[in-house]
Amino acid sequence: MRTIRRITAVLIMALVAAACGGGGDGDGGGAAQTGQNAEVTLNENAELKVGFVDDQYVLEGPDASLGAYPLNTNVLETLTYLDAEYKVQPRLAERWEFRPPNTWRFYLRRGVTFHDGQAWNAQAAKAGIFDRVAQRRGGGTIRAGANSVAIVDEYTLDFTPISPNVRVPEQIVHPNNAAIAPGSDAGRRPVGTGPFKFVEYLPKERIVVERNATYWGEKAKVARINFRFYPDSNARLLALQAGDIDLAYQIPRDDVKGLRDRGFTIANSTVGAYRGMFVNQFGEAPFDLLKDPVLRKAVSMSIDRKALVDGVLSGLATGDQTFIPPSVIGSSASVITGIPHDPGQARFLLDQAGWRVGSDGIREKGGRKLKLVLVSGFPSAEALRPTPTFVQSELKKAGIDVEIQERPDAASFQSLMTEKRGDLFIEEGNQNDANVGFLPILLLYTGPGSSPGPYAGISAPGATFNQLIEPSISEPDLAKAQLSVARALNELITVQATFIPLAGIYRIYGMKNTVKGFTPHPSFLNVSWLGVGVAAR
Amino acid sequence: MAYVLRRCLLVIPTLLGISFLAFAMANLAPGDPATEFLRRISDRQPTPEEVRQVREELRLDRSIVEQYVAWVGRAAQGDLGISYSTRRPVTTELGHRIPFTLQLTVLAAGLALLIALPLGIVSALYRNRLVDQLARVTSLAGASMPSFWLGLSLIVLFAVRWSMVPVAGRGGLDSYVLPVVTLAVAPAAVLSRFTRSTMLEILDDDYMRTAHAKGLSAWRAVITHGLRNALVPLLTAFSISLGHLLSGAVIVETIFVWPGVGKLGLDAIQQRDYPMLQGFVLYAGAAFAAINLLVDLAYGAIDPRIAAAGRGTGGTE
C-alpha cells in the first residue's frame, strides 16, 4: 500500500511539474511593441491567424450574419463605421444629412464594386441594406420599413424610418446593417464590398477570408486571414503561445503579465464595455432593502473602484462612472459626477439610518440583518469573476453582508432579474454603436411609448430620469443629445443610485510581435483588419 | 430477426420517455429562448414587443403540452424542427456534427481497449507484484483525472512546450492525437481495472488450471481460453463507456475545438435552443439504445451458450 502511495505521489508531481512549465515565446521577445508597422517590412503574402471566441453566426433568415456578426471579418461594409474613439466616420456613404422631420439622405461613395463585380449604388444599397433590415422585427435598430427608401439618383438615397429615429448614422455602423450584394446569400456565401473576400466557412471551426484586390480603398496588408474559433479561453491562450495563431481576442486579465513576460504584445482599447450593478429598488421582502436611497448610496460609496481597477482588473479598466463608454457621451461625460469612494461617509449614513454594527460585524436594525443578495451572470458568472467577491469584501467592511449567487448563463440571470429575486445584479454590457441614448432608454426609460423590461422593472430611476433623457430621443444634434443623456445618467447614478458603476472595461488582445498595425477597437464588432500586417522574417 | 425487430420497437417508447423528460426539464429551466435568441443576434437587450413576436414565431406562446405534441408529430416524420440559434434544421446540424464525434469516439474507444486489455491482463497475471501496483496506480490516476485538466496539460506539454501537435482544431492526423488520448484515458482506466478483476476470477477457474496442466504458457492460456470468457462482462462495461463517448464529450470538444455533438448539446442548453436540445437528447438516447442492442447480439456470438438459451426462450435474454 505504501508503495502505491509513493508511486502515486511521484506520478502526480511529475505531471503537475510538466504542466506548469513554460510554453512558447512571442516570436522575437524583447519589450512589448505597440504594433506600429513603420520601418518594418511586411510579408504581403502572409496568412494572419486570429483566435476568436465561440462561433455564433446565424446562418438563415433575415438575421443571417456570416462574416459580419459577432465576428467581423471585414467582408461586408456599412454606410458608416465607428472609429476607435466611437466617432462615426464615412465608409460606403461619403456624407449624410438629416432632413426633418424624419429622413436621412445618404450620399454614397462612387467607384465601389461588390466582390462579384456588381456595382455599388443607391439601388444596391436599398436591396443590400435597407430591404434586408426591413425584414427583421421592427425593422431592426434603424427601423427600416418596406417603403423606407426613396432613390434620389444613382448615388443618393433618402431613408425614412418607420418611426422617428434621429440616430441612424450612429446605429448603421453595426455590422448587422452591412451591405450585401443583391442576390447573394448572407448565411452561406456573403458577398460584400470589403477589403477581404469570403473564402470558406467551417461551422464552429473557422472562417477564412482573402484580400480583395479590387477594393476601393487601401489594400489589405495580408493575403489571407484565418479566423479560428476557440470557445475555451485557456485553449485560445495556449494556441497563441504555441504559435497556432498570431492574434487572440479577449485575453483573460490574469494572463496578461505572463504573456508580456514571454514576449507577446498586449494591446488594449479604450473603454468598450461597462461593468456595474443594477439595483433592485422595487423588490419585495427579503429583497426590499435597497428601496432606501440612503442604503443605495452607502453601497456605492463603500466600493473602492480604484482598487478594483488596479488590483482585480490589473489596470486594464477605468473607474468611470458613466454607465456607457465616456467617448460615446463626448464632452458631456463630465456632467456625470458619480458617487465617490467614501467608506467613512457610508458608515455614517448607515449609522444615521439606524443600522447598528452587530457582534459579528454585520449591521442590523429591528432584528433584521443587513444582508444583500448579489446575482452575477451576464454574460456569465465566469466572465465576471472575481469582481463579485471584491464587491462582497468591500461591503463587508461597511458591515453589509453579501451573498453571491452565480448564474451559469445570461438566460438564468435574466430570469432572476425578471422575478426581482436579488438585490444587486452585476453584469458586463457592451456598447457596439455610437447611439448615445440607446442603452439607457432601452433598459431604463419608462416614459410614453416605452416598453419597460426587466431592467426597468428593478432599477427604473423614474420621472426625472425620463424627463431628462426624452429630448435625446428626437434631437438630431449629437452634442445636444449627449448632454441630455449625460444629465439623465447623472440622475441614475449620482442622485438615485439605482445603477452602481464599477468599471469601464478595455478590450484586451494578445498577439505575436510579428503582428503590426493592429488597432484595438473598444467594440470588438468593429475591428478593422485593413491595416494589420505580419512582419517579414 | 424477430428479436432484433422487437428490440427496435422497444426503443420507441424509451426515446419518447426521455424526450419528454428533456422537454419538461428544458421548459422548467429559468430563461426564455426568445430573449436569448434576440440577445444573441442583436447584441442588445430586446424590447418586450420583439420578445413577444419571436415567441409567436417560435410557437413558444402555445402551451407546453401543445408544443410537445406538435414536436412529436413532426419528429415521427423525421423533422426535428429548426434550431433557434442557427435557424437551420436540427437534422442538418446533427448530421453535420455526428461524424466528427464518431471519429473521436471510434479512435478513443479503440485506444482505450488497446491500453486496457493488455494492462488488465498483465495486472492479473502478475498480481500484487510491482507491475500490478504500477498498473493499478496508473489506472487510478487515469480514472481520477478531470478531462479538462488532462486536456490542457497535454496541450501545454505536447503542443506548446514541444510543438509536436497543434493545440486544437481539426486538421491532419496529428490534430487527432490530443483529443483522442484525452478521451481514451478515463475509459481505459476503468476498463483496465474491470479487466483485471474479471481475469482474476477466471484465472482461478478449473479450465484454466487444465490449460496450464496441458502445458500452455500463462499468456497462451489467457489469450486462448481466459479472454473469451472475460469478454461478456467486459463488453458490458465497454458499452457503457462507448455510449458516453458517442453522446459527445463536451469538455474535450470545447477545449480542442472539435465540432461534435457534445458541444452542440452544451450550446443548446446555454442558448435555450429547445429543438436542438430535443434533437441532441434523441440522438444520445438512440446511441445508447443502438449500443445496447449490438452488445446483446454480440453476447450470442461470443458465448454460444447465451445464444442457445436465447433460442430456447425466443431471444437472447
Secondary structure elements and pairings:
The complex is a heterodimer of chains A (537) and B (317).
Chain A: H1 2-19, E1 47-52, E2 80-82, E3 88-90, E4 93-99, E5 103-108, H2 122-134, E6 149-153, E7 156-159, H3 168-171, E8 196-202, E9 206-211, E10 224-229, H4 233-242, E11 247-248, H5 256-261, E12 265-279, H6 293-302, H7 305-312, E13 317-318, H8 326-329, H9 343-352, E14 356-357, E15 363-365, E16 368-369, E17 371-378, H10 381-384, H11 387-397, E18 401-406, H12 410-418, E19 424-430, H13 438-444, H14 454-459, H15 463-474, H16 478-495, E20 499-511, E21 515-516, E22 533-534
Parallel strand pairs in A: 1-10, 1-11, 17-18, 17-19
Antiparallel strand pairs in A: 2-3, 4-5, 5-7, 6-7, 8-9, 9-10, 11-20, 12-19, 12-20, 13-20, 14-15, 15-16, 21-22
Chain B: H1 2-28, H2 33-42, H3 48-57, H4 64-75, H5 90-125, H6 130-144, H7 147-161, H8 174-203, H9 206-213, H10 218-246, H11 250-255, H12 261-270, H13 274-302, H14 304-313
By helix and strand content of chain B, what is the structural category?
A: mainly alpha
| Overall mean confidence score, pLDDT of chain B | 85
Biggest sheet of chain A, in brief?
11 strands, mixed
In quaternary terms, these chains amount to heterodimer
Strand content of chain B: under 5%
Rg of chain B, Å, rounded? 24 Å
Q: How much is the radius of gyration of chain A in Å?
A: 25 Å
Number of strands of chain A: 22
Fraction of residues in helix of chain A = 25-40%
Count of helical segments of chain A? 16
Number of strands of chain B: 0
User: Per the principal axes of the C-alpha atoms, what is the gross shape of chain A?
Assistant: globular
The helix content of chain B, as a percent range, equals over 70%
The shape of chain B, in one word, is: flat
Beta-strand percent range of chain A: 15-25%
What about the largest sheet of chain B?
none
Summarize the largest interface: chains and residue counts. Answer: A-B, 70 and 59 residues
**Low-pLDDT residue spans of chain A:** 17-37
Structural class of chain A: alpha+beta
What's the total helix number of chain B?
14
Q: Which stretches of chain B are low in confidence, meaning pLDDT under 50 for 5 or more residues running?
A: none
